Amino acid sequence: MTKLSALAGLAIAAGLALAPNAYAQPASGVEGVWRNPKNSVHVNIKPCGQKLCGFVIWASADAQEDARRGGTDNLVGLQLLRDFGPEKPGVWKGKVFVPDLRATFAGRAELIDANTLKARGCLVAGVFCKAQTWRRIPGAAD
After folding, report:
1. Is 33 within 8 Å of 142 (Cβ atoms)?
2. pTM value surpassing 0.90
3. CA 72/CA 104 separation, integer angstroms
């Protein structure tokens, strides 16, 4: 499994070109810019209508190459998190697009604290799942 598919198998596989002083951290909640455990993808989680979505705003060369091998030409700007809605306080469910597999899976994100997000993605109905811990990038915004 490539780095990107492992990342995307979690509801958080997703990031884009950032300028360190251009970010504004939200007062609370899951909105903001998050990085995966290997810091190879940064995803901006923001409102999309009444749901939340996440767009890749930065990706390492390796992550971009993994996506290209899977048939996704441009990882930066790609929407990875789709239709995330509240399940209960601090927990959201939705769909996660995995670029190198070119498939969408069920995902769940749980805010552990202001800077820690536990992401989980499953192939089917809670089976074949993977979890990752994502970290907020302080002061980051799209």
Report:
1. yes
2. no
3. 13
Residue-wise pLDDT tens digits, 105-121: 999 999 999 999 999 98
49 or 128, greater pLDDT: 49
Nearest Cα to Cα of residue 8 among 83, 90, 88, 75: 75
Residues 6+ apart with CB under 8 A from 2: 66, 69, 70, 100
Q: Residue 44: which pLDDT band, with cuts at 50, 70 and 90?
A: very high
**Which tokens sit at 66?**
């993994």
| Residues 28 and 115 sit within 8 Å (Cβ to Cβ) | no
What's the rounded Cα separation, in Å, for the pair 82 and 55? Answer: 9
- Which domains, ranges and CATH numbers included, belong to the chain? 3-19+30-136 (2.40.128.520)
Please provide the DSSP assignment of the chain as one string: --HHHHHHTTTT-------GGG----SSSS-EEEE-TTS-EEEEEEEETTEEEEEEEEE-HHHHHHHHHTT-S--TT-EEEEEEEEEETTEEEEEEEETTTTEEEEEEEEEEETTEEEEEEEEETTEEEEEEEEEE-TT---
